[in-house]
Design a protein that fits this description.
Chain lengths: ~500, ~500, ~500, ~500
């Protein structure tokens, strides 16, 4: 399903770049930042922004912001403005509140006693309300309801003891991290340095890449990039280096990368990387915790085939996000994989008045049925998640009208039942199909022959350990060990939040 | 490969709708026309236009035109303007000349002695130059270089003998058809009637659908639609009815559809439906000559596997258009099908200055490599066509860098070598890779381990007859008969044009 | 009163330019055309268009069109496109029909047997309906309801007897002029020549200017311009040369200007230059028939003071168009001239919902009262025309509330009572205040102490002869002679049309 | 001269409105705010913003902001958003820095410990640098370089001693006023109250108006408005009430207006209302210190006639701002007043490449010469100020070419020689013509026959006292008394700043 329809949305993507030497040139830094944001576009389409710094003392910052996709927000002539920077950070934003305004567009730049800092943030502070009060009690006025503005003011406000004349941004960042446990992946730029920060629970992703020379000294390091997802590295000629660890502060400058500190979690707390990054948000070619997202989704499909086998003729996908799970299901079940839906790439907003019969036809403008591939057959249709239940229903109708004798829905993730307070935009509890009375007879409600979901345990296993039947035994033992170090937030499925929520 | 990059482009899509009774309402007619064009958007993204008629005497026509995609060109408030029509025709345009202006946007409406007609046209007149001269010699000034304006003026100008006071549009259309053999699929609206016309060679497609009641009397006919491709029928709740035959004039009104005439080809000339509609242009869920385009493409892939088998580990696709051929190749060859490329849905125009090293990275912003699926393996990569050779090259590089040991390119169509004069925008002969010296060592040129194309005979067989190994024997015999009635234009592959070209 | 509010509108302005030598350069020709249209902007604000020709054989034409003011319609980068032309014509359009579409934007370019011509037209053909029928009977389809398209098709269609191989555009233009007597001022560009044409009645204005060298050989001729109004000459460094005479065809090329022909009126018919060009439309610094428009308006004010003297304290104006008449009235009456209204230059469209009390305040957002200048005084307020009567009323209210003891309205033109069929957009007969019952007590209706209009005779005298009391005796005798050669259309005031109207 | 060309610019206009009862409705409050800003548009055209409050506890604020003129910035549908407010404040902004961004658009809204406040500001803080440092030292990050953001943070930050649980905004405002002496006219909205504040020197204007019932109980108070200039009152049906006094804090609520405090200036300091508000910025129908701006300008013209009499034939104006001075000069000198220039209302930005000869023609596209009114005559041309000297020069050339035998420039204000630090955007000292060597022979430089400026004493006399020769003797005595209470900032003319400047 598409993000827009399912109503689940990621908050943001962040991206940073530092040139190490002559290459990339200043113009290329601007282009790398742009391409990096394009590759993170799936994490936010509302607005985009870039701030570059020339790195001198005092630094000159150049800001470029706009509404919409990167390609809309930045015009070619605008990009030229950015060219006077050797380093920079960028941000793509997903609107969580419906208030879509340029003033919420990140990165935020504020002038402080120690010069200007620029901040780009992905996540949501669990204790934002208390922090806002604290900041305002100190006499600071806040212009937006954004957590990211709050973070910039906290960084400006908290002077650590030992700071006398020169600013100690690392101490300030650590201070911030003790004030708020999660969730944030953060880029803080000051003068000629970018600090890449991940909250102690590692709830949001953040990866580092190395810009590699493609000319004279092929393979030499020519700069560093940092990104919400590693999928952005290929498009700019960077190599995956490593993830920023939960709680870690990494300093990135033209001299290289340097781990400055790792702020620990409370004793006994496991990390809590958002499991829905695997299931849903991330681009399939991104790598988290050493594994490719596509592969995890394929394992989810295999696990689903084990948990919810089906007596049917063909397996298919709701393109495009469910395809790895569908291929996994096909592999595991032995059923042939075929395509049953063809997507119209050009569907935009078309304006159908609400009270017309055409509303009934709904999703059909988005998909066409590949009739010959399934007419007269029993179809297993894999979807990656069913959130509200209103988009899968017309697809089922379409397939049945085109001749499918049975349509079995298999969902490659468990039902979502609880709100997220850590950066994901989930419909209200009441809107979630899993909390409605209709969920009792979900198959009847959406018109399917049968409906089955992946179990929470199955999902965690697929994410954390691989599945026995895959013949990945050796891997499993090592993964089991890793699972002590790893751990995932499944709050939206289980209601178990990684930290206690204050109200 | 995407249309934009390959440089091959369809000229247009046409769509018409007539309401038979109360339903669809006038507002819904406007919406059906809009949705119909959205479903034909792949045939042209430059501009869109709709003209509706209220059907009365004299008729009132309402016109809506705009640049860009349907969703951009028509604003919600604009659509309300269209609501006073019981019938209408629409058009999406692909820019063939680079001159992108609103005045070229169809349908064209002209006032004639017998009232206004509206015309939507897909195709290109092979004898346009001679016809222009003829029209101008008669004293008509032509505002555009468009064949479609030429057609409207020819319809206005040619009064057949028998026409006295009332207009005889059918005679005028027949007259036009004797003046120009190909290529055109044409919708001519006058007052309360749409004439759907296909040239005698049937070079461009045109299908009729029936609007079906989804309420009181389920299944009853409530109107008629006509479209370049049947893929647009599902999205508006219409059922595929039949194709307009080569040379046929079909009258569509609220009283139903009526075949008025079939203008014959010169004795012995076979029909010449454009084979590239199957290979490339049409949406996979469209139906031509009784067969689904997806199925034909799959057969092309199977045929390719027979003609060009490969010693490799996995088969994959350049998403998304080559996927059916890749699945066919996998089926026939027995090699496993995997996905190796992940597409960034949000790539728009990003502005990379030409003289920077980032240019080198090229296509990578559009695709990500799904490394785990092919690292250390020999990959057969299926593409639907290679026109210029400049887009496949960076993909191969991407796969090799990500660990593919061999990358064998298999192209599910023969090399394009000749220009098209019948509505397809093909690069100049010099730009076509198949005409360049580099084609001698095409594999070396694009960096592939090996390159093989489907043969012309193989393509024709896949299109016309199915393949024995598919176990479609029964079908084949019937198809063989059909092949007497059918026939395809392969001019861009063979240089054999269906009619003699005048210069 | 502003055009927008009064509901009277001019159809268009036309402008042409031919470079004689090296200067103006091609880029400057484009700029001269743009500046020329800016100076004619008061004649039409709906759309603007320019076509330039490089003058070669065959010529290359470049077209630039856009909606809105010249400054909106043409972007800087667009203007560069025009730079490859040594000559060109332009057009600004006023929407007369409410249908505001780019396809009505002039100049029109059509391809004919003898090459492309471009046409720009100001006026309206009195026998348009009959001509349309004639053209369509010949088999020509017309795309718009525009008279200007009709003119282009008539030019394309009418091959004069003597024309064999080479086109005889002059014969074609003459032919056109015999088919339609009025009204048109026309620019026809073909290859390297512009034909400037005025209809036999001279209903619409057209003047020729000489581009003068401001460099090396100061004063030398460097090109020619032709314009609806001479006010456009100053802004481009041109000198007023002369008017195109009624019925005259002037050929303008790099070799200079040449009068080719003067098509006569029917015996006994006087010329019929639109008197409202003086009263209302033209810019005050334009020159018609040897006199400056401002001076004529001032004479109207003096004549008004003679016809309708007032016992009052001060004379003032509704800025800005009535100011010359007000100054004339003050001079003649001996009353002091003061300003009572101050205009807000920035009033744009602000959106006041119709059913609120703010509507009552109406015009006040446009004008402020300069209270000190008239509080406690009796004011004579001069307006140039009262068309609907709905805009002067709130002004009177404003002045009274600010302390004027009496407000006497004196209108420097007679009441408009009849429609115009020659290019002016006048409200329907029913909307004209002069045709309403309320006109009986117009003063009471609009809230004035008294209302008086200039007489038709007074207006004609002011336009044609000057006024004795001005001490212009010598001038008068010469003007009386001229009045045999001159004559004015007063149809909207008197119902006497210069030609018989066919229906 | 136009603002844009002269390079002098006002910073902003502020406007507020509180409804007292049922009328104005919430929708009308939004419209009154819009119309109020339209009437202040001459004070700033870069951006516009409005914030309304519903007045409840806690209040809901609605914000609307946009770039450009009010009519561009606010779309009709946007205004509907504002309709849920009984009170609100608005702002129009003039770009002083060249950085034109939406984030600088006022009013600023910040959330504080005691709820949200909205602030609109006109002026510039003389000690901004020191205050910024102070605020940042407290740990506040500043997002913009705007003084207005600084003010909002100072209001948020400074908790006065006596404030315990409930906020004491008045004490906070007083506190602010002790921190910074000038210049600011300020509107601070909190919940259901607007505080209207003028700095102790009264450098920027601020007036209060009373919304008057125009229906049932005609004349009853229905609300209150506050505005930079009283010219905005007429357009919304408000009556001028009084000015906010220097140093005064006026509370405006639905219960009426209440003077809360007057913060005094240092002993002996006179007030310092900007004299250029009279000369240049304000709309002529605005009232400051009991006198209409138009009348003051007329007095400047009379004084100029006394100081700089001319032997000439006619007096005229550079329309439109110099007209009152020109009429005053004509009255005093006895020379006849005529119009010599006609303005093209439609001149927008037209794009003339810098290196073409058309540049030479410059201002001519903006003005036409009314030749008949001055050809062969000696002209006195009144201008309101000459700042850079580059715009008057082409006007003089235009008049001379059109036949003026002499052109004497008389400037109705003294030469500007010094920078302003209190809110006016003046060109750099080097750019000011009065500081250039060319000023020695300014007449020669600009091509005039002679040039004379009004003296500083003459300007002050015209502003403060009226002139004896006007026969305003009685007034003068009262004005002389008033002059003890009044006083004006003439820093840009004399270099004498009202407060000592810190650096």
């Amino acid at each position: 399903m598409e993000f827009e329809e399912s109503g689940i949305g990621e908050e943001c993507g962040v991206f940073g770049c530092v040139a190490a030497g002559e290459w990339p040139t200043q113009l290329e830094v601007a282009q790398i930042l742009t391409l990096g944001l394009v590759a993170l576009q799936h994490r936010g389409q509302e607005s985009a922004g870039i701030v570059t710094s020339n790195g001198s003392t005092p630094p000159t910052y150049t800001t470029l912001k706009g509404m919409g996709l990167v390609s809309t927000a930045f015009k070619p002539e605008d990009l030229l403005k950015l060219k006077y920077g050797n380093l920079g950070i960028g941000h793509t934003r997903y609107s969580t509140t419906g208030i879509s305004e340029l003033q919420n567009c990140q990165p935020f730049v504020v002038d402080t006693l120690h010069g200007k800092i620029a901040v780009a943030h992905n996540g949501e502070l669990v204790n934002a309300a208390a922090l806002r009060k604290k900041v305002m009690r100190h006499g600071v006025g806040l212009s937006t309801s954004s957590d990211s503005e709050l973070i910039t003011q906290l960084l400006a406000l908290t002077p650590p003891m030992e700071e006398v004349d020169t600013p100690d941004w690392v101490a300030r960042i650590k201070n911030l991290m003790t004030e708020t446990p999660t969730s944030y992946s953060l880029l803080v730029m000051h003068k000629d340095v970018i600090y890449a920060v991940r909250d102690p629970y590692g709830n949001r992703p953040l990866s580092i890449g190395r810009l590699v020379c493609i000319w004279d000294k092929e393979g030499d390091t020519e700069g560093w990039v940092v990104s919400s997802e590693s999928c952005s590295f290929q498009s700019i000629g960077a190599r995956y280096h490593r993830e920023v660890q939960p709680g870690e502060i990494v300093q990135i400058s033209k001299h290289g990368i340097k781990s400055l500190s790792v702020v620990p979690r409370p004793e006994g707390d496991p990390p809590a990387f958002c499991i829905f990054e695997y299931v849903y948000f991330a681009r399939p070619d991104s790598i988290f915790e050493g594994q490719m997202v596509y592969t995890v989704r394929q394992r989810c499909g295999r696990q689903l085939a084990i948990e919810a086998p089906t007596d049917a003729d063909v397996v298919s996908t709701v393109p495009e996000s469910a395809t790895p799970a569908a291929l996994g299901y096909a592999q595991e079940s032995g059923l042939p994989y075929v395509e049953v839906l063809c997507k119209n790439r050009y569907v935009g907003r078309t304006f159908i008045q609400p009270n017309t019969r055409l509303r009934q036809l709904g999703v059909a403008k988005k998909f066409g049925a590949l009739t010959d591939n399934f007419a007269g057959k029993r179809v297993v249709l894999i979807d990656d998640s069913i959130v509200r239940g209103n988009t899968i229903s017309p697809i089922i109708k379409l397939l049945k009208e085109a001749g499918a004798t049975e349509v079995h829905i298999r969902v490659a993730s468990p039902p979502i039942r609880f709100p997220c307070y850590m950066g994901i935009n989930i419909p209200t509890k009441e809107e979630l199909i899993a909390n409605k009375p209709e969920f009792e007879d979900i198959a009847g409600y959406i018109g399917a022959t049968s409906v089955r979901y992946l179990s929470v345990e199955g999902l965690v296993a697929a994410v954390q350990g691989g599945i026995e039947s895959c013949g990945e035994k050796e891997q499993i033992s090592s993964r089991t060990k890793m699972s002590k170090r790893i751990g995932h937030c499944t709050a939206c499925l289980t209601g178990k939040y990684p930290v206690e929520l204050e109200w």
